């Protein structure tokens, strides 16, 4: 068995080195009324590589603006990361059109995301294509989230406030 990367064993503050992945889509009602149709929303999972702590952020859609806002909320609450890892998004190939947009955004971040990362001096590293073992920490977090989320939801559509509460309780 090989040695762990230095980023995973050198003690630093939480989320200095983290991984990010998306969970979803989740069907969420904007308000708790009967006849309002549900919208698709996503959850971004951030996993600290040193402490294995997790953080969840609700993301309204898969646009670069929504993802940049999600990163800003995460950094405001948990502190700025110096290195962020993500998968290469090859697992999204052939999925829904929303996931294709996410795949394109992660493979070639547009000017908004790239400008924000450059201004904050954040390194973004992708795992090699077709190598899910490189993202084991955040993929395990996705599995745990789905396990508890399914038991809490029981196939019902809830409002944004209720889903934020469930996400906080899972965290």
UniProtKB/TrEMBL annotation:
InterPro entries: Integrase_cat-core, RNaseH-like_sf, RNaseH_sf. Residues 10-171 form the Integrase catalytic domain. SUPFAM superfamilies: Ribonuclease H-like (SSF53098). One of its GO terms (molecular function) is nucleic acid binding. Signal peptide: none annotated. GO terms for biological process: DNA integration. PANTHER family: GAG-LIKE PROTEIN, PHD-TYPE DOMAIN-CONTAINING PROTEIN. This is Integrase catalytic domain-containing protein.
